[in-house]
RNA sequence: GGAUGUUUAGCUCAGUUGGUUAGAGCAUCUCGUUUACACCGAGAGGGUCGGGGGUUCGAGUCCCUCAACAUCCACCA
């Protein structure tokens, strides 16, 4: 056992330095993780410019977590996959850049701070715009700190020197620049349209920011001139300007094109009767009262049929002057009062129970009020000047052409479908926390530009931009755009966008749309969509169910490496993943196993050092383990290149525990003198594991006393695989297992070493000794009265009383019967490939042999 | 209403273009401290692959159909 030499000249290893003998019996992640992370961070290698990389850059923009809360398991899983990719590509010698950042998350953040203010008994209105924004900034600063620390805790090797925030000056400039360009191209326009309005947020919402919830409602049938009109919202009838019927509905043909005066409990309205295919003549009375100002469908009717648009409900949910005597009431009060009046007037035919979908704000769950308003829109169906294509077409083609690959590919279809049905995107919001719209007004003039115009009297548009507008620029705004920076040239387009499938529309689609517009180029090559994290029963983790698992607590309890494994192994792109403590504990056990394998190797070799080239194998076991290792390197490299993280992890796990530990280390104890091979494999195994379990591998690597950290070593190359040795070795394993079985079945205690005679054409004397030690028998030259067995080309006799178990015999007999029948089947013999027939015959012979 | 996914051992999941007697981890049972590890080792039991039908010499795998669960989109006068 040689003492370790290490160089003090290198600052990388500022954490606890230990000599091999001092490795604790069990790995205690808590003692090391923070120190290891600090050492990585100080080394500077999270920054790709510090790497001596020769290969192409590999870039991931970290999806910015909302600056509102704490890291949950969803973030932890995303960080695990992203860090896995980044570390793998860094080890492959690429310029790996993982750019972290946070998002100002306009509505989400504002809502959160408003809740805090409400608890303090104040409100944003009471504070005023300036003071309120100060409060939000304070809040964001605190939660950003939390997010940063928790991201570090997960071992994320991201380049903190490039950290960005959507509210940075640079990014804000990018937002303004993008707006101005789109405005100048006529792709952003102000328009008076129907929008989704959240009365609590006092702001518009985009179509995909509205959620639906089934709701028990009442359907009122109202006597309405010559019609009976059914509605769940009687109060809106106060602003009806049309009645729609089906074109072939004979009942109403005579009214088509006419303008009728209708009296609703004394409230007078004028409605134009028109026909539309969309009307279902079977529903209710087959006539729809049309309220253009407060229903998206009705607004379309109004556009098509030139109906008057009367706004009835204001931005606070109160009835306007157009509502006559109901003016000033809020919507619910107005409904009650109006229904009462209608009933008194005998105009309510009936009221039925009815299930409908209530539209809710995705941030605060307040019911949405559709209303007309003047807002800024991105025109997705308008041709871009000089390109003769719409934004929608650009974004669709980027995926259709194969330029961008989405994993799993079934999301292509979902993406196309969404893109196809995309309407103009309302981007102005009336909330305060966000990027101000870069538009200034002076009487009749309008100025659009990234800077305030010169001269006095200009007033900036009070509205802010949809948070997704700035997020859509994320892959390039973080690299310095609109400036022509070196980073932009080197690192854009990025390589992989790793994110949850729940925000494919909100974010992924909009990044593609905006990047294709601005650069005529994709934002990323591959989209890897991970699934949602669920509890053991498959339920979403939520505060109300109290079934959430805190990643930080799990990291403290089991170690970050174990947590990461539990998130990586067993997961597939697009598939939800169940996570629970027992699973994490299982991987904690594995990490400890890896620790002890290393501990065994470090303490049993004469001198701990790295081994440059593959050592010459001496025994069958040596040839086998090297072949298995080379095969492992080959396979997991292929898996990782194809984003198959879970299979790669499983193969590593299987090799480490079931091959290296269970067989080779045991044989090493028997055969001895395996320092070179053990060190050769361990060194490289730590590299292979590093992207999965960065902490423990870096710590163990320290034992080699090298100047460089494991993080920047080179990914191993696969050498030759010796097929004959793997075949022979599996025969050796089968014999050992066979003998162990025979011993257990015959109730021979493990300590007893029954006499056994072994004859083989392929095994050396040494191999037979290995078999004897592993299976715990005494090898003898001759054994007269004994149970005989045979496996492959090896025959054995062992001193046991009992025969094959009844079940074993039964299985063999069944198998032989079935196989013989198959071989007699003319169809099989004529049609199956010769190789399959030959294999079947061989297996049959083996089975018969066993029965003897 | 449209679309997608899932259904394999008690639990969580693998099973690549159809081809060994369907695998792993956890859990269970038996035995066990031998040069690292009880967060361990050796061994065992446990599955008519959601139901039905079809194609094929051969189906967990391909096709049809039904069912349950989940998710997304659209719409709801």
Strand arrangement within the widest β-sheet reads 6-5-14-16
Sketch the major β-sheet.
4 strands, antiparallel
Runs in which pLDDT lies below 50 for 5 or more consecutive residues are: 1-17
**Annotation field: number of helices:** 26
The class by helix and strand makeup works out as alpha/beta
How large, in whole angstroms, is the Cα Rg?
Answer: 36 Å
How would you sum up this structure, described in words?
There is one protein chain. Helix content is 42%, strand content 18%. It has 26 helices and 29 strands. A four-stranded antiparallel β-sheet has the order 6-5-14-16. Strand 1, helix 2 (73-91) and strand 2 form a beta-alpha-beta unit. Helix 9 (391-400) crosses helix 14 (504-519), helix 16 (560-568) packs across helix 17 and helix 20 packs antiparallel against helix 21 (694-701). The longest helix has 27 residues, at 645-671. It is elongated. Residues 1-17 have low confidence and may be disordered. It binds one RNA strand of 77 nucleotides through strand 8, strand 12, strand 13, helix 10 and helix 17.
């Amino acid at each position: 056992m040689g003492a370790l030499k290490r160089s003090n000249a290198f600052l990388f290893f500022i954490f606890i330095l230990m000599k091999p003998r001092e490795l604790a019996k069990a790995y205690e992640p808590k003692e090391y993780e923070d120190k290891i992370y600090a050492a990585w961070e100080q080394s500077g290698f999270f920054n790709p410019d510090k790497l001596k990389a020769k290969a192409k850059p590999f870039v991931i923009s970290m999806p910015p977590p909302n600056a509102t809360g704490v890291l949950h398991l969803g973030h932890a899983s995303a960080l695990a996959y992203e860090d896995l990719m980044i570390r793998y590509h860094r080890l492959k010698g690429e310029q790996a850049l993982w750019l972290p950042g946070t998002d100002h998350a306009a509505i989400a953040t504002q809502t959160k701070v408003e809740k805090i203010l409400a608890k303090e008994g104040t409100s944003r209105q009471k504070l005023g715009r300036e003071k309120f924004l100060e409060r939000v900034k304070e809040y964001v600063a605190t939660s950003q700190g939390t997010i940063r620390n928790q991201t570090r805790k997960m071992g994320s090797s991201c380049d903190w020197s490039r950290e960005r925030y959507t509210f940075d000056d640079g990014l804000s400039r990018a937002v303004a620049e993008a707006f101005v360009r789109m405005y100048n191209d006529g792709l952003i326009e102000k328009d008076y349209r129907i929008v989704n309005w959240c009365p609590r947020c006092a702001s518009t919402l985009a179509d995909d920011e509205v959620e639906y919830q089934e709701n028990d409602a009442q359907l009122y049938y109202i006597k309405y001139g010559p019609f009976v009109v059914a509605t769940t919202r009687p109060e809106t009838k106060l602003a009806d300007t049309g009645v729609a019927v089906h074109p072939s509905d004979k009942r109403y043909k005579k009214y088509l094109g006419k303008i009728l005066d209708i009296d609703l409990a004394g409230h007078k309205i004028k409605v134009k009767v028109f026909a539309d295919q969309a009307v279902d003549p079977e529903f209710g009375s087959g006539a729809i009262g049309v309220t253009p100002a407060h229903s998206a469908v009705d607004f379309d009717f109004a556009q098509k049929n030139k109906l008057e648009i009367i706004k009835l409900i204001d931005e606070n949910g109160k009835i306007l002057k157009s509502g006559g005597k109901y003016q000033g009431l809020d919507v619910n009060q107005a409904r009650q009062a109006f229904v009462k009046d209608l009933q008194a007037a005998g105009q309510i035919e009936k009221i039925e129970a009815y299930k409908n979908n209530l539209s809710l704000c995705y941030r605060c769950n307040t019911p949405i009020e559709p209303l007309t308003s003047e807002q800024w829109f991105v025109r997705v169906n308008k041709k871009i000047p000089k390109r003769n294509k719409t934004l929608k077409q650009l974004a669709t083609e980027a995926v259709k052409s194969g330029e961008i690959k989405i994993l799993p590919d079934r999301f292509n279809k979902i993406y196309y479908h969404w893109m196809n049905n995309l309407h103009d995107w309302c981007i102005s919001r009336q909330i305060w926390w966000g990027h101000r719209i870069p538009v200034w007004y002076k009487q009749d003039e309008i100025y659009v530009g990234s800077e305030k115009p010169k001269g006095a009297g200009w007033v900036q548009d009070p509205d802010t931009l949809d948070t997704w507008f700035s997020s859509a620029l994320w892959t390039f705004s973080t690299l310095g755009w609109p400036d022509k920076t070196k980073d932009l040239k080197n690192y854009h387009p990025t390589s992989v966008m790793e994110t949850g499938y729940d925000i494919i529309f909100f974010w992924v689609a909009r990044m593609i749309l905006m990047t294709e517009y601005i650069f005529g180029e994709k934002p990323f090559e591959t989209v890897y969509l991970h699934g949602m994290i669920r509890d053991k029963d498959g339920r979403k983790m939520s505060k109300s169910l109290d079934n959430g698992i805190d990643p930080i607590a799990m990291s403290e309890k089991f170690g970050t490496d174990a947590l990461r494994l539990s998130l990586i192994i067993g997961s597939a792109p697009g598939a939800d993943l169940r996570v629970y403590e027992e699973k994490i504990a299982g991987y904690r056990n594995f990490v400890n196993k890896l620790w002890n394998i290393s501990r065994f190797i470090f303490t049993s070799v004469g001198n701990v050092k790295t081994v440059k080239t593959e050592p010459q194998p001496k025994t069958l076991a040596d040839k086998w383990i090297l072949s298995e290792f080379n095969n492992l390197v080959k396979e997991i490299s292929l898996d990782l290149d194809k984003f198959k993280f879970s299979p790669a992890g499983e193969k590593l796990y299987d090799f480490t525990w079931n091959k290296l530990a269970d067989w080779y280390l045991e044989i090493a104890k028997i055969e001895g003198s395996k320092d070179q091979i053990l060190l050769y494999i361990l060194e490289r195994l730590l590299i292979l594991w590093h992207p999965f379990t960065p902490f423990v591998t870096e710590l163990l690597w320290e034992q080699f006393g090298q100047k460089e950290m494991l993080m920047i070593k080179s990914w191993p190359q696969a050498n030759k695989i010796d097929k004959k040795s793997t075949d022979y070795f599996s025969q050796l394993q089968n014999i050992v297992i066979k003998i162990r079985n025979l011993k257990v079945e015959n109730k021979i205690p493990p300590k007893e070493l029954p006499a056994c005679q072994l004859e083989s054409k392929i095994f050396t004397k040494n191999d037979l000794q290995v078999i004897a030690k592993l299976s715990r028998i005494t090898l003898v030259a001759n054994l007269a009265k004994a149970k005989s067995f045979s496996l492959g080309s090896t025959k054995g006799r062992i001193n046991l009383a009992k025969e094959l178990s009844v079940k074993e015999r039964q299985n063999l007999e069944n198998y032989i019967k079935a196989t013989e029948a198959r071989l007699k089947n003319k169809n099989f013999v004529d049609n199956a490939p010769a190789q399959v027939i030959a294999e079947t015959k061989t297996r049959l012979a083996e089975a018969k042999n066993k029965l003897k």
